[in-house]
Specification:
eight-stranded mixed sheet, Spore Coat Polysaccharide Biosynthesis Protein SpsA, Chain A, globular, binds cytidine-5'-triphosphate, about 30% helix, binds magnesium ion
């Protein structure tokens, strides 16, 4: 088994509004990207990572990941997360058997979750995603902002990363569908391949807003 983690880190971080790409925002003296990559490698089952960086920050991200030596590679990302993952996937070694896709913005994901995703694919799953129950009621609303429907919350899940795939399955999905998606499993679903779920973890939260950053800082204290 050869496990490679793709780390989309090429976003601008508009909602965080730090003035630098989100993956380069420091928490406890180190960029989110460093926390994320270190966490993946510390799980012990990920052999290497391919990071998709903003084109203007490939050199900076390469430098901050020097600690990982040959275990980390940085490639220029794309204009959407999907494009960034596609470019990173293209840079994964051909003999890769298991691919994880993990947002740099989920920088404090516990090693146990990474291990659980890899173990599930190693155990025969084509695709696996970590999920959490939905705490709030979710409404579907129309363009005018009026409620159109209330889906049963019991059937809904919040989706996290790392998402894990048999490499051949993820490559097939990215070859088949050129359009953008918010999660990689969405493309695999369209192939008709079953996607398994495992319990996610609150610490695998995506840092999107200044509030999320404050929560992450509090977790680390
Ligand atoms: N991402 C990427 N390439 C893009 C856009 C996003 O690699 N063109 C990555 C981000 O760097 C992040 C992950 O996808 O690690 C999830 O995206 P998101 O949380 O939306 O991050 P940003 O796009 O940076 O934030 P925003 O949407 O607020 O600008
Ligand atoms: Mg974004």
């Amino acid at each position: 088994m050869s496990v490679v983690a793709l780390v989309p880190a090429a976003g601008r971080g508009e909602r965080l509004g730090a003035g630098v790409p989100k993956a380069l925002v420091s928490v406890r003296g180190e960029p989110l990207l460093v926390h994320a990559v270190r966490g993946l490698l510390a799980a012990g089952c990920v052999h290497s990572v391919v990071v998709a960086a903003p084109v203007s920050d490939v050199d900076t991200m390469t430098r901050v990941l020097a600690f990982a030596g040959s275990h980390a590679r940085v490639v220029p990302g794309g204009s959407s997360r999907t494009q960034s993952v596609r470019l990173a996937l293209g840079a994964a070694p051909p003999d890769t058997t298991v691919v994880l896709v993990h947002d740099a913005a989920r920088a404090f994901t516990p090693a146990e979750l990474v291990k659980a995703v890899v173990a599930r694919v190693d155990g025969g799953a084509d695709a696996v995603i970590p999920v959490l129950p939905v705490a709030d009621t979710i409404k579907r609303v129309d363009a005018a902002g009026r409620v159109a429907a209330t889906p049963d919350r019991a059937d809904l899940r919040v989706v996290q990363t790392p998402q894990g795939f048999r490499a051949e399955v993820l490559r097939r999905a990215y070859d088949a569908y050129p359009d953008a998606t918010t999660d990689d499993a969405g493309l695999v679903e369209r192939l008709g391949v079953p996607v398994d779920t495992i319990p996610g973890h609150p610490y695998a939260m995506k840092i999107t807003t200044p509030f999320d950053l404050a929560v992450a800082e509090a977790i680390l204290r």
